[in-house]
Amino acid sequence: KTPTLAIVGATGTVGTVMIDIINRRESVPWGEIRLIASARSAGKKITVRGEELTVVELAPEAFDGVDIALFDVPDEISAQWAPVAAERGAIAVDNSGAFRMDPDVPLVVPEVNPAKVHERPKGIIANPNCTTLSMMAALGALHREFGLRELVVSSYQAASGAGQEGIDRLYAEIAAVAGKGVGSRAGDVAEALAAAGLPEETPFKAPLALNVVPWAGSRKDDGWTSEELKVRNESRKILGIPDLKVSATCVRVPVVTTHSLAVHAAFEREVTVEQAHRVFEAQPTIVLQDDHDKGVFPTPAGVVGGDPTYVGRVRQALDFPNTLDFFVCGDNLRKGAALNTYEIAETLAN
Ligand code: 2RA
């Protein structure tokens, strides 16, 4: 029988992108596709591959007969319901942070560690955080050739990482500052937001319009944020390098969608720009946009909506041996979330 696929959180930001991905696939291996969401969204009609489907409410019976259930819901909902799906016989592929560091749950990027989908004692597979994921195709490919040793990363994260609330806030802030001539006196951007009646409470801790905010995620010990620790812990787990040296600074920028990262990566073996280019070009899910003379490089606005990881500005570090610096852009809602989750499901089905 062809497998049944369920999407839990089908009406959310990532769930909506998931359905778009399924609709654009040339073919899919699924028989039934079941859309599941909270009671608030149950009953909604959504067209998937030409068929109008009715969203059903999240309940244990919703998983009956499901082979693979993709979870695009907040951590606490996944923590509660992914085990329920697994108990009912489904493989749960979870895009939340609830299980990523559980030693009995594989953390999978199909370009890097596809075989891990089969090592799932809890019946749960985790999808990495979008910030880590945005650089994994590139790092995995380089690691295979040159042996990754150290990683120093700065992120430039889009507002949609904070969900629809983040997107709405950024647009409202941009509207509030547009044409006001602010940005050259300390505090005048915040004043313009207050004057426009925007609530002081923001998903970004500081004004995002005309600004960059060196904070993403929640507060953790010793000055680190959750996003920075995820980059460290998840990179180690996905690449299978438990003692990989990692240091990350995560920054929010006024971009709607697509996370970017400046990556400084040191390797066991010598690596040149030409060799790195060849490795990137050989990886089907990477698009190399790197022509120094012509000023070709990826930007979030230039690649948003695309499936691949875009890589550019590849340089051999001048003062560090066996080390590359490069810039990566990846759509945080596609490869960073919905697409990778869906690719895990395809890996399972094939
Ligand atoms: C963010 N990485 O960008 C988070 C979303 N999971 O806020």
Topology record:
Blueprint: E1 5-8, H1 13-24, E2 33-37, E3 45-48, E4 51-54, E5 56-57, E6 68-71, H2 75-87, E7 91-94, E8 124-126, H3 130-146, E9 148-157, H4 163-177, H5 188-195, H6 226-239, E10 245-252, E11 259-267, H7 273-281, E12 286-288, H8 300-303, E13 309-316, E14 323-330, H9 334-349
Helix pairs in contact: 1-9, 3-6, 3-9
The structure holds 3-amino-D-alanine (2RA).
Residues 129-131, 157, 161-162, 216, 227 line the site of 3-amino-D-alanine.
Catalytic activity: L-aspartate 4-semialdehyde + phosphate + NADP(+) = 4-phospho-L-aspartate + NADPH + H(+)
Pfam families: Semialdhyde_dh, Semialdhyde_dhC
Binding site for substrate: 157, 252
Overview of this protein structure:
Helix 1 crosses helix 9 (334-349), helix 3 (130-146) runs parallel beside helix 6 (226-239) and helix 3 (130-146) crosses helix 9 (334-349). By secondary structure, the protein is α/β, with parallel strands linked by helices. The strands form 3 sheets. It has a 6-stranded parallel sheet, with helices on both faces. A 6-stranded mixed sheet has the order 10-9-11-14-13-12. A two-stranded antiparallel ribbon has the order 3-4. The protein has 9 helices and 14 strands. The two termini are 13 Å apart. It is globular. Bound molecules: 3-amino-D-alanine (2RA). Residues 129-131, 157, 161-162, 216, 227 line the site of 3-amino-D-alanine.
